[in-house]
Design goal:
- With 316 residues, this protein is an alpha/beta fold.
- The protein has ten helices and ten strands.
- It has one domain (17-309): Rossmann fold (3-Layer(aba) Sandwich).
- 35% of the residues lie in helices and 19% in strands.
- It is globular.
């Protein structure tokens, strides 16, 4: 099978929206991706085959983690001439298909670290790599979902999602099919013609997730994407995000200061200290991505452990 025909594999599901999505997003080699106009994508040295072998093959063929931070630091210079060290001495490796939550108090540097991995900020010290290549700026291989939706208000939902694909030169017919598959994936199959102002907050954020997935990134970076939503909508989108994770096997780095959210979502939780942010705990609370029961004794024990790690009481 040629790289043009290679398909992204998904966790088996009775819903064929995942199948449609896989058929519309071939996982090209670097040369093929350049030919298709997907500019600036770092080299990938593996192909996705199936969810249960993708991580093993990545490690075997690249012999390095997907994301690697070594002695990373970032210092801001304020307009008054002072310096603020946001993070310091961050050494962190993330493998393909992990779901990692960055957890910590406000101002601990979680967003700074995510923005560095996104390529929006450069390290003051240390090294930062994706697939063994230095991160030198933003790239379609790292999709970003922001807290404030960041949709273009003058574009329809369909045009918002298709924006990155249009920039790559993808044909209109393929863009339309791709957007349809993405809307199915996030559970919004019939809103392509609507504008952002016509949507609820939860719907806007699902559109933002679809847009971030449109370029088939290796990594999905999410900066407190559900913080502005009401409690019921937030829990609904958390469950949907786990479903998307299971179907796509994307690597996800998720910033939050909500302890319950981190426990519910993550396969791995990295706790940062107060400024300057340093890693104070790194552990894997769950063995799989099955829904976590928030009222279980295990959940509550993890909550108390994390509350102690970040120096807060056992309530939010």
């Amino acid at each position: 099978m040629t790289s043009e025909a290679a398909l992204i594999a998904f966790t088996p599901t009775e819903d064929d929206s995942a199948s449609r999505f896989g058929q519309l997003f071939p996982n090209h080699s670097p040369s093929q991706r350049a030919k298709d106009g997907r500019i600036g994508t770092p080299k990938r040295t593996y192909r996705r085959t199936s969810p249960d072998t993708a991580t093993a093959r990545t490690v075997a063929e690249t012999e390095c983690p997907l994301i690697e931070c070594r002695d990373l630091a970032h210092t801001y210079h304020t307009r008054l001439g002072t310096q603020i060290t946001a993070i310091a001495d961050i050494t962190l490796s993330i493998d393909a298909s992990e779901f990692v939550c960055l957890l910590g108090p406000s101002g601990c540097g979680k967003t700074t670290l995510l923005n560095m991995i996104a390529g929006f900020l450069a390290p003051t010290a240390g090294t930062l790599r994706l697939n063994g290549e230095d991160i030198c700026g933003p790239d379609p291989d790292r999709g970003v979902v922001f807290q404030d939706y960041s949709l273009f208000p003058w574009l329809t939902v369909e045009s918002n999602i298709a924006y990155g694909l249009r920039m790559t030169g993808m044909s209109a017919a393929r863009r339309k099919a791709a957007v349809g598959a993405l809307l199915d994936l996030v559970g919004l199959p019939h809103i392509g013609a609507q504008y952002p102002f016509e949507l609820s907050g939860g719907m806007k954020q699902r559109v933002a997730i679809a847009r971030a997935l449109a370029t088939d990134p290796s990594v999905l970076l999410m900066d407190e994407p559900f913080a502005a939503l009401d409690a019921l909508t937030r829990e609904s989108l958390q469950r949907q995000l786990l479903d998307i994770k299971a179907r796509t096997q994307k690597t996800i780095l998720f910033v939050t200061h909500n302890i319950s959210e981190a426990i519910f979502l993550a396969s791995r939780i990295v706790v940062l200290s107060s400024r300057p942010g340093r890693i104070v705990e790194d552990f894997r609370p769950w063995a799989d991505f099955q829904p976590r029961k928030r009222t279980s004794p295990e959940f509550n024990r993890l909550y108390e452990r994390l509350a102690q790690a970040i120096g807060v009481e056992g309530t939010e």
